[in-house]
Every structure is written in C-alpha cells, then in structure tokens.
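Entry:
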Amino acid sequence: MLSNNFKINKCDKCVYVKTKNKSYVIIYFYVDDMLILGNNKHMIKSTKNNLTNKFDLKDLGVADIILGFKISWISNGLVMS
C-alpha cells in the first residue's frame, strides 16, 4: 500500500488513504475483507486493478452491509444504520 502512495491512518492502522488533488480513495481492511471507497471512480478502479495484480481478490460489488451496518443509498449520499 505504501509503495502505491497510500498513507496509514494514525488512529486506525487498518485504514489507508490516498489523495490526489481533490480526489481520494480510502481502503479499510478487516481480517480477510476490505472496503474500498472514494470520490473518484478512476482512482477506485486503478486501486482495484493494482490490488488484483498482486493478490487473489474477489470483487463483491457495491457494499450493502459492512461490519453489521446496513448501507442505504439515498439521493444525496448514503445512510448507515
């Protein structure tokens, strides 16, 4: 992750962040799962491609539940409950 310009979050060592201009990608690792999110589809796709080239990954698509939280998409964002 560090070789791809990601920074480790100081509060949670399972979170990595990469920023470029006003775009960002955040990766959260939990045991053998990860959640990738960001505000730039190209950066997200590039990150997924880089990880897929180095590791055996399975893309499960858009998250609807993570760590017991249900993710619901609404018109101006998302809600976690």
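The chain has one domain: 2-80.
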